[in-house]
Design a protein that fits this description.
By secondary structure, the protein is of the alpha+beta class. It is about 75% helix and about 5% strand. It folds into three domains: about 1-220, no CATH class; about 230-445, no CATH class; about 450-580, Heat Shock Protein 90 (2-Layer Sandwich). Strand 4 and strand 5 (about 575-580) form a beta hairpin. The longest helix has about 35 residues, at about 35-75.
């Protein structure tokens, strides 16, 4: 079930990153072909503004996602709603201020970004066009994550398609037909983000939304934890910005504009190449935070094993494809195959993919450590991956191999960060790691001891019959009285049978239900997860006529026997928790 859930989350995360790159590439092609070469310079000069709100987005989204996951794991829906409301409120406040500055003072912002008077006029127009889109872009980015929690991935896909189609159509209308130049380019992007936000935001006006905007649930004190947890993402963005300046200087000294142009070609489609890695990181962060909240050691290890084995295998396939088609990719940017810039770009697209699987491993562990509040190792990995590792390697290799040495430095950087993960686990465990669980360095105090829990997976009706017996045997081993043992087995068998009967009826999909029973503080905690259509037993019971004792006898019995009963439907899973 966990592997299936992981790969149901992954496509949306990949697509979100990839679409950002596709929008940027489309704007770049329109600008260079139909406005002029200075238009590309304008887009590049505006990039620091984009970095500002991207950094804020990364901080708030990372912190909010992890805290929401942990609260969901503890079945604390009101606190989850509070984090969602606080996150949206912070985004609106920041985006409104930044957009107002760009709208009211576009000339001053343009002057800060460039001293070139010839370009500044176009830059001012572009800032005016882009400013109104800052708020819907930032809000849309936030909502994509919460919509996944609400099982609304199809809405995200629809929003992305609307955004891309709108951007392309308006680019053509504003630039080719109306001749609006840079102002038209900016407005097209702004309107596309508005359309994206509208498609996503409509869901939160419906009654279907579980995570709702509710100021009554907001705890302003959670602002500091959100920012503290999310800051490592901003550190990486900051390090990457400095790295870009340093690498451009080194490349210019080695091979002039050709080396810088080659790296620019990679950066143009960089988000597209990084999409799978970014998707892996986001999916890992969301699921890991949930299982940390649940203190579910087994599921935590399963998520990380899935990401590191199956997820990284996908990155390896993408890397191999880029290396195989390095020639055609290079030709898209530079047509003269005999030129130095073509040669350097070709080798960059041949060498750089070697570091992509290593970067994926680093990103997965950074998000795992971030979710488990190990900020020391998070900051160390972020600093090395974003800046220190590649700069150290570049200082050594560039004098020996020129620009090719800088390309190799990317691979060396990946090796360094992977070694840091291994050495960290070695230090914490006191021995060389030999498994995924060793690399995770999970504290012994985390989770429920094996003798105090039992896990049962149910795939068909035949397996339901054994559930009650297995639970009663578990209770007997832990000294639980006979009456409670019987009630626990009976309740879980009844609910499991109900799920199999009504939830496993889709012949096109295979389903499973995962049962966990925990004995803790003299309480029996029963939890059952399934990936079927949502079904809230408490809601069903509320609709039953109390005078008709012949209806839903099993649910009535469970309600009487359970001390507490709670239900949530999140991330494509139904989770029912009972205490006996």
């Amino acid at each position: 079930m966990i592997s299936k859930l992981f790969f149901s989350l992954l496509p949306v995360q990949i697509l979100i990153v990839a679409i950002s790159s596709i929008n940027g590439i489309a704007d770049g092609l329109m600008a260079s072909n139909f406005i002029g070469p200075d238009a590309m310079a304008v887009i590049g000069l505006y990039s620091p503004v984009i970095k500002i709100f991207e950094t804020v987005n990364v901080v708030l989204l990372g912190g909010s996602q992890i805290l929401c996951g942990q609260f969901l794991g503890k079945n604390q829906i009101e606190k989850t709603q509070g984090i969602f409301t606080l996150d949206i409120s912070l985004i609106v406040s920041f985006a409104a201020v930044l957009a107002a500055i760009c709208l009211v003072y576009p000339d001053q912002v343009a002057h800060m970004l460039s001293n070139d008077a010839d370009i500044r006029s176009g830059l001012t127009d572009y800032i005016r066009g882009m400013a109104p889109g800052i708020l819907p872009q930032m809000l849309g980015t936030q909502l994509t994550v919460f919509l996944q929690i609400e099982q609304q991935s199809k809405r995200t896909y629809a929003g992305i398609m609307v955004m891309v189609a709108t951007n392309l159509a308006l680019d053509y209308l504003f630039i080719r037909i109306l001749g609006m130049s840079m102002l038209g380019l900016g407005l097209a992007t702004t309107i596309s983000y508005m359309a994206f936000f509208v498609v996503l935001g409509i869901f939160y006006l419906s009654r279907k939304a579980i995570i709702k905007f509710n100021l009554h649930n907001v705890d302003v004190n959670e602002t500091i934890p959100i920012i503290a947890i999310g800051i490592p993402g901003a550190l990486t963005t900051f390090c990457l910005a400095i790295r870009g300046v340093i690498l451009n200087a080194v490349l210019f000294s080695c091979s002039g504009n050709d080396g810088v142009s080659a790296l620019s070609a990679l950066n143009t489609c960089g988000y597209l190449l990084y999409a799978v890695t970014a998707g892996l990181a986001a999916a890992t962060r969301l699921l890991v935070s949930v299982y940390i909240g649940e203190e579910d050691r087994t599921s935590l290890v399963t998520v990380m094993r899935t990401a590191l084995l199956k997820g990284v295998a996908i990155v390896c396939a993408v890397s191999a494809a880029v290396m195989m088609f390095a020639g055609p990719i290079t030709y898209l940017f530079y047509k003269d195959t005999a030129s130095q810039v073509y040669y350097l770009t070709l080798w960059l697209f041949r060498i750089y993919p070697l570091c992509m699987p290593l970067s994926a491993i680093c990103a997965i562990f950074v998000n795992y450590y971030q979710s488990s509040s190990r900020m020391g190792i998070v900051n160390l990995l972020s600093a090395f991956d974003g800046l220190l590792g590649i700069c150290i390697a570049t200082v050594i290799l560039a004098p020996l191999y020129g620009s090719i040495g800088v390309w190799i430095a990317h691979v060396v950087n990946g090796i360094i960060t992977t070694l840091i993960v291994i050495l960290y686990a070695w230090k914490v465990n006191g021995k060389a790691p030999s498994s995924v669980e060793d690399l995770l360095t999970i504290p012994d105090s985390f989770g429920v001891p094996e003798d105090k829990r039992i896990d049962i997976s149910i795939h068909n009706a035949d397996e339901v019959a054994n559930t009650s017996e297995l639970i009663m045997e578990f209770c007997k081993r832990n000294g639980v009285d006979r009456k409670r043992s019987y009630y626990a087995g009976l309740c879980m068998e009844e609910m499991a049978a109900n799920i199999v009967e009504h939830g496993f009826d889709d012949e096109k999909k295979s389903h499973s239900a995962d049962v966990r029973v925990v004995y803790k503080d003299d309480s029996l905690i029963l939890r059952i997860k399934d990936d079927c259509k949502p079904f809230d037993p408490k809601e069903k019971l509320a609709l039953i006529d109390p005078d008709d004792i012949t209806k839903n006898i099993g649910l009535r019995m469970v309600q009487r026997l359970a001390k507490t009963m709670s239900y949530t439907s999140m991330l494509g899973m139904n989770v029912l928790t009972m205490t006996i």
